[in-house]
Amino acid sequence: MENWLWLIYGPAQLIERSPTTGFAIGALALVAQAVRSTVRGDRVSREWLRYPLVLCGLLWLLFSLYELQMIAVGLGLATTRLRLDLIVLTPILYGVSVFGIMSLLGIGGGSTPTRVDDGRAADDPAEVNSSTDDKDVR
What is the Cβ-side half-sphere exposure of residue 90, based on CA atoms within 13 angstroms? Predict the structure, then answer.
């Protein structure tokens, strides 16, 4: 039973024991993606926020701030043993972290965000003339 509790409460225990660890994990993920983007020659734009490592880093930073706030308010693990919020937040944190690590290692799908293409070409004559096709000219 102790291992099961550590699995659910692990990130919160980590931040409670060493508050800077969560920030270090988040910063490390952001720096790793920044280096990776620089090596590839990618520009920093809105799409940069769609990389899995960036999402992972930002989530760890937000979770660290949340846990520090919980400790400051007195609702940390030292005062309460049952934290229902961690039953929801920890699997999300684990899932995004695994997805970010897989992206870093190149396992799975593409590690770069892709634009959604609706299948039409920009110079499609049907699209250009669609406004005149709808009108009934007599």
Answer: 17
